[in-house]
Specification:
The chain is built from 12 helices and 9 strands. By secondary structure, it is α+β, with helices and mostly antiparallel strands. α1 (2-14) runs parallel beside α4 (49-85). The longest helix has 37 residues, at 49-85. The N and C termini lie far apart (78 Å).
Length: 338
Amino acid sequence: MKDKVIELIKEAESFTSKDANEIEQFRIRFLGKKGVLKDLFAAFKEVPNDQKKEFGQLLNQLQAKAKERIEELKNASSSTSSTGKGDIDLTLPVLNETLGARHPLSLVRNEIIEIFARIGYTVSEGPEIEDDWHNFTALNFPEEHPARDMQDTFFIDEKHALRTHTSSVQVRVMENSTPPIRTISPGRVFRNEAISARAHCIFHQVEGLYIDKDVSFADLKQTLLYFAREMFGEKTQIRLRPSYFPFTEPSAEVDVSCNICSGKGCNVCKHTGFLEILGCGMVDPNVLKNCGIDPEVYTGFAFGMGIERIAMLKYQINDLRLFFENDMRFLKQFKSTI
Ligand code: DAH
């Protein structure tokens, strides 16, 4: 019996293999539930008492050797495979990790913020759940104005709604600060509209507001020309068309020369050479008064644009829904440092 154990110790010491399967077979034969060690320990009680000590030590030695050997061989086999012989080939080029990228709407919003920051505009924000005063009344919307209608607005209760535009933030800013005010307010807005390639019930706007002494329409025009050229390129032209908004007087809609055909006329600009990007005007004296600013002392202008619209023109995207579907094939095309 003793000789058999010594024999097995030698065998364990000399066993070698690089094959994970063979190593496992070895482990089962020596250490498994029906392995040799199990049998030997079972036979221990038959060993005469005077030999028990020596035999016991030999058994422990065999068990330790077998374990040690398995450990060594396993380590050796895993390190050989990682040097190129196993499943992993270290000479292969590294696979590109798919890094996240900013959403195109965030890119455009950040770019708008940067462009206006360069001429001294701060960023201000307001709540998405807005009261009637900030979304409508202070902005000179008459009681019966259709924009208050259930079809356009998601009402929460009698006095609260999801804001339908970021113009509500200009009211909050004017109420809480004294001129000069130069701020833009980016944010999410909500309208009860059917979702299509051109409309969505959730979209994003940037509101701009400039209030000071002697602010004129010429200042507004020049500011918007500066913005359009920074955003769409230095050859960009702008065109102002008279329009109506309750909160500005006079009001205008602003078009930029089509950045696809450079104003020559194409499908995108419907052969007009121009694309509409925003609404603007001189802040109505009623609005100034509503917000605690003296219209006899101060004047100012405001403008509002849709971020989706700017992004669609800038990147030539023809379906608004793409911004909200989170399709990786779409999102992956936008990379930027801002
Ligand atoms: N609030 C308008 C809208 O959602 C956009 C707008 C037009 C904002 C003219 C303005 C402005 O500040 O002066 O359609």
